[in-house]
Design goal:
Elements (H helix, E strand, L loop, with lengths): L10 H21 L2 E6 L5 E6 L3 E9 L7 E9 L1 H27 L1 H6 L2 H35 L5 E4 L9 E3 L3 H25 L3 H13 L1
Antiparallel strand pairs: 1-2, 1-6, 3-4, 4-5
Helix pairs in contact: 1-2, 1-5, 2-4, 4-5
Amino acid sequence: MDMNFSVFQEPRGVMRILQFIFAICAFATTCNFSGFIDFMCRTPFRYNFDYPFSLLLNKELNLVEKADCHARITLSANFESDVKFFVATGVIAMLYCLAICVVYTKFDELYKNNNQIPLVDFLLSVFIAVLWLSSSACWANSLSGMKHTTDPENMIWTGNTDACPKCPSSVSSFNSLNISVILGFLNFFLWAADLWFLYKETPWFQNARISSPVDA
């Protein structure tokens, strides 16, 4: 069957390419993130964390040089569900873009002549747009919680810390995760903006356009 690439000169085709690219960027910046917390104690210690961000730490540290000051640092927070929801949305969006682009290029005539296919395309796009909005909001909330949990001021120390100072600590930057949240909401905007172009292909719009001169 002949391939028709002219669809990528139309808004619906161009939007699918943008959606595909930004979906990959959104979940790649999330999955490839690797963070750490450095504890500058008598014996330096680094705690590493990455996707899916289940933060569990329970370790005793020798706080200061030449002193019997021991304390236990505890972290317990789980952000798996929200970040996995976000990444799953990105994967679903990417796969759908690939699948619908195949339909656009190989079955363009069927797409234009069969009223049900544009309708299904429109409804599935609405669903994915809702997924992007909800998953991005959930992930933004979890990222805020992760920053709070890893803030040195909020870390839980137990032991003889009343007599000994806490050892200083530093946390890695969350810049790439901040970008992933921005990309999530940008993806929602791309999918929501595309709905108008997809709606124009549905029988709802076509029938309204045909009936409007009669009504006039």
